[in-house]
Amino acid sequence: MPITATIEVPAGQTDAKSLQVKLRIMNQAGGRIEVLNPDMGIPASAMKWPWSNETYQTSLLISFGYLSMSVTDETGKEPPQEGIQTGAKPVLRPNREREPGDSFEVAIPIGNFYQLTSRKAYWMTLTYGDQNLKVSARTRVIVP
Asked: Can you give the pTM of this predicted structure?
């Protein structure tokens, strides 16, 4: 596989609703590769978008099949999901070229998409990419 992915939980997070993870994607190939650019633009002011730009980007990535998320507790049960729809078309930017060893992050505000419980462990699986190149990562996260 020319790219790999890991899920990171930044330090300093304080509650389940605002839990954000970082999907780090790294080029492990021997040469330059092109990877889907996660930058989908920002919401138009007329939308009166009530969430963050990261939530907007994540919602668009999901809507158009570039990102899938799976969250389950230790028993395999999925927590209730929050329905966030943008009603917008993505602004597809050119793919990102990555040299060998280069990486980039995609910020994913998981707490906006799932009703998580503080001090509970969850398994998270994230799959990112387009029809040309996809990558997945799975990790166990304990919600603050």
From this structure: 0.92
